[in-house]
Design goal:
Helix content: 25-40%
CATH class of the largest domain: Alpha Beta
Number of helices: 14
CATH architecture of the largest domain: 3-Layer(aba) Sandwich
Strand content: 5-15%
């Protein structure tokens, strides 16, 4: 039986927690092209905040791709973003495939975890592996696909508690995946790589569409002057009503992945109307939020990351709101104690950052609670303190209902939420 030597390529939200879990059972190397990240990891610092007590795991971190050649089991866990025109940006996974191919040794299996459209692993990644390595699938190496299901910032639904889909190019390769992944969590054997790819992408398509429905309802109820939150609470008393909440869908999963499937659908001649309509509704929500501050002079945004309790601002819809606000001539300030600057969009460098409430020189006439980090429950972020930095009759738009509506209204705020 093969005693696998594992190399995880890409040490972000997906790769690092996986490498840590696997290191309990195997010799594991972690490769990343970011030398600073490698140094941070060697010093026990995880910028994503996903892994606690990093130093207790025995992992060989390296920015030298030679470590890939020492592995029998290679896991590729790199981002799959979209372009400005909402097309799949496969450059990270293509680049990773090229590096892996250049160091691939006979007998190895290469497993992709990145979210892609059905067919991508075999149609895009495999040819690169073969071209760069000079090896042939089936004769010299095998491939697999086991989609990541990480939920950034979630300390409950971690890798070891989520069932893992596995698929591979041969039954023998699938058995290798089963023996590796089966040591850290329950596995489900998909019938093919394409099926596994499709399964992952529709998980996020389904969630995106359900949120889009809630968002469209919120738009309707806003016109009708009734509370979406109250409507959903009432409707939720029926046993078969599925509970979703409206929201601004950002990040590198739910807001991105549907475009991978729509791209492939259009490529094969099908127009995915419902999925694209859902994306359009979700994209429109930034406008609804920004319009509630019409006529205001200066607005503070609290929490600019793509979701609460994560430091990442990639594809944050706070950016869309800011663009709409500044287009109205509103001066925007921002405050985020959780955010880290690595992925900071350029616009945040041009906006005034409020490090603490003691720094304000002019009171705000609007506050947007965009990403309600848990830290906002601390006394210094209490509504009374927010009131002290605001003018009379200020608007507080609390996207996810973090603060109590009645308490906010009693302090004189115009309280709004989705």
């Amino acid at each position: 039986m093969i005693k696998e030597k594992i190399c995880v390529v890409g040490l972000g939200y997906v790769g690092l927690p996986l490498a840590c879990l696997l290191s309990k059972h195997f010799e594991v190397s972690g490769f990343d092209i970011n030398e600073k990240k490698i140094k941070d990891l060697e010093n026990g610092f995880d910028e994503t905040g996903e892994v606690d007590d990093l130093k207790k795991y025995q992992i060989n971190y390296s920015s030298d791709p030679a470590v890939i050649g020492e592995a029998t089991f290679i896991i590729v866990a790199v981002p799959t973003p979209i372009t400005e025109t909402n097309e799949p940006d496969l450059s990270p996974v293509e680049s990773a495939s090229k590096i892996v191919g250049q160091h691939l040794k006979p007998g190895a299996v290469v497993v992709y975890e990145s979210t892609v459209y059905p067919g991508c692993t075999e149609e895009i990644c495999l040819p690169i592996l073969e071209q760069e390595s000079g090896l042939k699938l089936g004769r010299d190496f095998e491939i697999g696909y086991s989609p990541e299901r990480i939920n950034p910032g979630d300390k409950v639904h971690t890798v070891d508690k989520i069932e893992k889909i596995i698929s591979a190019s041969t039954p023998e390769a699938l058995e290798r995946l089963k023996k590796v992944y089966g040591l850290i969590t329950k596995v489900f054997e998909a019938s093919s790589i394409k099926v596994a790819e499709a399964a992952k992408v529709i998980e996020n398509v389904q969630r995106s569409l359900n949120i889009a429905l809630m968002n469209e309802l919120a738009l309707i109820f806003d016109k009708l002057g009734i509370s979406t939150k109250d409507v959903l609470a009432a409707a939720g008393t029926k046993w078969n009503f599925h509970k979703y909440q409206p929201g601004l869908v950002g990040g590198h999963c739910i807001g991105v992945d549907p475009y991978y499937l729509t791209h492939k659908a259009q490529q094969v001649g099908y127009d995915p109307k419902i999925i694209l309509s859902g994306q359009e509704v979700n994209e429109s929500m930034a406008g609804l939020v920004a319009d509630k501050f019409a006529g205001k002079k200066n607005v503070l945004i609290m929490g600019i990351t793509f979701k609460e309790n994560v430091p990442d601002s990639r594809n944050t819809k706070a950016l869309n709101v800011i663009k709409r606000l500044t287009a109205q001539g509103i001066k925007v300030f921002w405050h985020d104690p959780v955010f880290t600057a690595k992925h900071k969009p350029e616009v945040f460098s041009t906006l005034p950052y409020l490090k603490s409430f003691d720094e304000i020189t002019e009171k705000f006439d609007g506050i947007l609670i965009f990403s309600p980090h848990a830290v906002f429950a601390e006394p210094k972020y209490a509504l009374t303190n927010l009131r002290n930095i605001c003018k009379d009759n200020s608007v507080i738009f609390d996207v996810k209902g973090f603060y109590d509506k009645t308490s906010a209204q009693n302090l004189g705020f115009t309280y709004l939420t989705l």
